[in-house]
Structure formats: structure tokens, C-alpha cells
């Protein structure tokens, strides 16, 4: 099976052939995957060198001329390093773009903190108007990339990861999907967290919802699921900073007495290398870690 | 300063109700509508002559066709002290005169830093320094990718603004990409905290740009620099005006 990043390269190369409005902006990272596309479309495959501020500035400028830019590098360099450019060169200009990151929270675990961005979604949330896709499988990544490329002039973030679920689900931007029905509470699994959530809650009488698009936040489905549960409790399981979706979840449930448990990566820096598997376990996001905390929260 | 230069300090013809103010002499009275002051210090007018020469004689832009794909693009990167910009836009018919007196007010489209979504003819919102050049590079690339080789892209930056590192990402890349439709005009009022030895033109020249330095109050010299050919390379014009301090 190819990775999400592999799929990004093949799909984007195809989209560049099909849609003259698309342009790709790179800062060296992944450029070796686009040599053919760059030969075919030298004016629309743009590698600016190691210049992340310029990646976003160029994306904004391309959009102002009517193109639809796709900008890509590792998540910390794409979102965190050039955050003011994301805020001003895209948002403030009302310029559309698709930002595609790879590396997710700690795919590059051995690379250390410099190559990790567990706060990227929370950071984009401060801007309010980003559509945020968190695919859980390369097939979902492909569908969401195609959706994002054709999504008018909206500002869209696609967060690619090496962590995947075994099987893809249909993508429905704006809608959370019901994967399992239960009565004792509701668990929302985001992107690559689904397999671990299903294993952690096996034999438990809980509803499991799945989101491969976390913004917009599907408040209606959350409200309906929690309102139907005998125990009005919601557990968020996100593969990035703990509590990133706690605010929209609380808002969705404002009229319901409820309890909320947000799970994700802990905010303090984990000074360990290893693999992403090690980091999943260290943050308690493996099936055992999730099961322990979900059971305790639901009193099981 | 040459005979072709009208000093903004001597402008004395008031705007009248019977005529749309559209000359250089109208600019200071138009600025007064925003500031309420009769006189303006050098900082407020540092960009005035550069803006006027561009809008009056160089840029191919029209208030009737603000979205024309073939128009030249002028990006005010520094965003600070925008009264001169708004005055020029008003004089050229982009901005209604009655907007000027509301400058900075809650419902006014004219803020202390411009917002492209609120003001006709304004290509970018700016104010945080160091964003215009990157946007200008992207604009030049986008036009080139669509076969629009006619429009020129102009970015106005301040000399102190060039301290922002983002500019230097853009400067080298623009030369490497041979963006010969890209132009930068640096209004140099010596406000950078640390002056560059050898001057700003040498900075651009060292990166492979065509670069020249002129008197930023001399309309004829500005026009010559703005229209000089620079095949295969982006062009930087350093427009020197009175030091800020």
C-alpha cells in the first residue's frame, strides 16, 4: 500500500494535467516526487527553495491572479513557521489555497521536536475559516485532495500522515459518520485514530463516530448522538493536540447536560525519538491507553 | 530636485466642488481631508511622488476595469501612512472623495492600513511589514503561468521594511526565476535601524536584479527609472527622499 504522501504526489500530478487552474508550490520537500510534473508544467510546479514564508506568499499571489495554489511541505514548516503568512497572505487577502502537510504530529519521531507539529490544527483554528481534512487512509487522502482542489476558492488544509486505518471509509466533508452504535456514550475518532478507537471500545456499548474532515465540525451529528445516549458523554480522540475540538464540541452540546473527555497528544514536549508507534503509546493513544481512560471516564 | 518637480509643500490649490481633483496639486488637499491638518510632515508624504508618477504615467490601471486580467498590479507592501495612497486613488477615481473624511472610522473602508476587500483598486491588504514582495512574486508567477505577459507587477516597500527576512526569500528567488515583469520601488527615507553599507541598490544588484537609485521627489527621474528596460531580470528602483529623522 502506498502512503498518503505517495498518493498526494500521484493525485496532484494527475490534477495538474487535468486542471490548468491548479499550481503546486514547494520548498524542496517532496520536490523529487514532482520532477515529471515540473517538466510537464514548468510554470505551475514551483519550487522556491528552502523559503517557507515565500511558499505561502507565492500561494497568495498565485490565488490573486485566479489560480488555485496547492502548497506543501512538512507540517511544522507549512503551518507554524509561516503562520503570519497563512493568516495575512491567504486569509486577510481573501485568497484561496490548499495547504497539504505531511509528517502529522510525530510521523518523523526520530527527527525530534523540530519536525513535529501536534498544534497545527489548533493553530489554524485561531483563524476560524479553514476547512481541515484529516484523512485516515490513503484512499481517503486521495478523495479529500480531489475535493479540496475543486473546492472553489476556499482555504483548505489537508493533513497527511503515515498513520493509517486498515480500511478506508467514504469521505463526506462536513458530516461525521456513524461507525458503531451504542448507548453508554459517544466516541468521536478523527482520521488515523479510528482503528485504535474501535479496538479500545470493542465489547463496550458506545457509539463510535468517525471524522476525516474535522472542520467544519459536524455539530448536528454530535448533538444527535449524545442526546440519544443513555449516558450523555462525549469522548474526542484526535491525533493532535488534546482538546483541539473541545470548544466546538462544547458549543454543539450547550443545551445538553453532558460530560466531555478530550484525548489527543499532551501539550508538553516529549523529549524522545524512536518511531511514531512509540509516541502514540507515550501519549496514551494506543488501544490500551485509550481503553483505560475511556473505561474510567464512562465508569465501565 | 529638478524643475519638473512640484514640491508637495507648495501645493495650494484647494479641491473644489465643481471639478474632480485629479492633479498632483490636489494631493495634499486630499490628504488634508483625512488628517484634518493643512501641513504634512515628510514621513506622511515620503511615498507621494513615487505613487503619483506610477499612477499618473506608468501603471496601466483604470477605475472602470479594476478586475481586468491585463491590468498592471500595484502592491503597497508597507501599508503604513496610507493617506498618500488613498489621495492618489481618489485623484485617479478609484476611491470616492467623500470616503476620505471618514479615514480610520469604524464604518470607513479606509483604514490606517489598507484592506483590499474594502477599497477598489487596492491589490493587497498590508500593514505587517514584509508581505508584499512574496505576494508580488506569486502574482508575477501566476500571470506568467496564464500567459499574461503584458501586465507589470509593482511592489512598493520601505527601506526599513527590507529588514524583514521574508523580503530576502523573495528577492533572491525572483532573480533566479527571471521574473522580468516584477518591479520593486523602495522608498528610502533612511528609517532602517541599521543602514546597509553600499546602499540598497547594491543589495538588489548582488542578487541579480537590475537596480538603480534616483531622487524620489524628481518626477522625471522616477519616470525614467520606472520605464527603463531590464530584460530577463526584475527591476528595483531605490527612490531616496528626505530622511525620516
Automatic annotation (TrEMBL), chain A:
Recorded superkingdom: Bacteria
Entry-linked CDD domains: TPP_PYR_DXS_TK_like
Gene3D superfamilies: 3.40.50.920, 3.40.50.970
Domain Transketolase-like pyrimidine-binding: 2-168
Name the record gives this protein: Transketolase
Native source species: Actinacidiphila acididurans
From TrEMBL, chain B:
InterPro entries (UniProt xref): THDP-binding (IPR029061), Transketolase_N (IPR005474)
Cross-referenced Pfam families: Transketolase_N
Membrane-spanning residues: none
Annotated Transketolase N-terminal domain residues: 40-227
Stated name of the protein: Transketolase
